[in-house]
Amino acid sequence: MKVIPAAIPDVLILEPKVFGDHRGFFLESWNRKTFADIGLNLEFVQDNHSRSSRGILRGLHYQMIHPQGKLVRVTEGEVFDVAVDIRKSSPTFGQWAGVHLSSDNHRMLWVPPGFAHGFLVLSETADFLYKCTDYYAPEDDRCIRWNDPDIGIAWPMGDIEAPVLSAKDSKGAWLKEAKAYA
User: How many domains does the structure of the chain reveal?
Assistant: First the structure.
């Protein structure tokens, strides 16, 4: 497993070893020992899978009482994936790290608890998988606006005129008003 530091030290870009030939490829996306060897002693309790179309932006999501660490990857298509540090005591509070995740590059992103998370679909469709360290608690769900100027995410919109948002995401809080971690 190759570990690439992201723009924020706690966020990690992970590249698994990919073995391929004329039949296709094989990779190991999760192995407790391999992850422990790189300093991530994680226990996952829930796996999620979403499919979205080009231009859909999901996020920036987080939970306060049940913060989730997320190991995310794309199995079909391409997204621009973002983690935003919302830990007030952190020297990187309000900063973001982004990476292109695709079925071609096989990269994964580790988004630790204490971060808001979101992604923009760049391909016609994308299948997005994530392993979570805590259970989803809908009553605890929070959202920060994708276009908050205090965060300033450089979303690679290309020819996407405007992202497609859910009703919840379009009403997200601004970072300065959002409930954040200590």
Answer: 1
